Task: structure prediction
Amino acid sequence: MFNTKVIISPLFSHPLPQIGRPLELYERLVNENVFAGSKEGEAALKEMGILFKYLTEVKCTENVLFDLSLARGLDYYTGIIYEAVLDDPSSGMGSIAGGGRYDELVGMFSNKDLPAVGLSIGIERIFGLLERKYENSTTIRACETEVLVGSIGSGLATERFKLIKLLWDNEVKAEMLYNDNPKPQKQLQYALENYIPFVLWIGEDEIKNNKVKVKVKNISLLENISIFIVFI
Result:
C-alpha cells in the first residue's frame, strides 16, 4: 500500500498523490501539465522521463517508487535524488542509502566541473540489521556458498569448471579452489573453515560413471548420486 497523502504547491492547480509507481505518476504529471510554465519543473520532468524509460528497459520499475516529497539535507544536489529503503516492515528502519546528482560538487575541489552521481551507504544501520539477524545464530558464515566442487587426482580442472557451471545454471551457489591440482585435504579444509555445507567430489571413476560423491560437512561420504553431466 502506498502513502495516499497529497502534496500541494503553487505550481499545482490541484492535489497530486505524494508517492506512486514511476510511470503512472509521471504520466499524470505530463498529461495534466502540472509543471507548465516552470522551466526548471519541465526540465526535471523530462529527465525523470528518460530515467523511467531506462528503468523500464531493464525491468526494474517494480522496485522503484516516485516520491514527490523526497528531500535531501544537503544543498549541493543539482538533479535527481534517491534513497534505498528496505521493503521489510519488521526491520523498523527507513532508508539505508541515499544520494543523487551533484554536477558542481567536484568543481569545488578541482579545476574542472565534472558531472557526477553518487550514493552514500548507512554502514551503521546495515551492521545493526546484521547484528539483529545473527544475534541468535551460533555460526556466522563468511560466504553464502552452498557447494564446493572438489577433485581427487590431477588434470581435472576442466571437469570441475563444467560441474560448477551446471550448478550455477541451476541457481546453486557453488565455487571451487582455482588451482590446477589442489590437494583433497586443502579443499576439505577450505569447506570446513567457510562452513560450506556440501562438497561434491569428482575423480577419474566419477567422470567415467557420470557420477559425483557427496560429502556433508564433516560427515563421511554418504552415497554416489547420478547427475546429468556429459564430460567431454
About this structure: The helical segments are 22-31, 39-57, 123-134, 157-169, 184-193, 204-209. The domain at 147-226 is CATH 3.40.50.800 (Rossmann fold). The first strand starts at residue 6 and ends at 7.
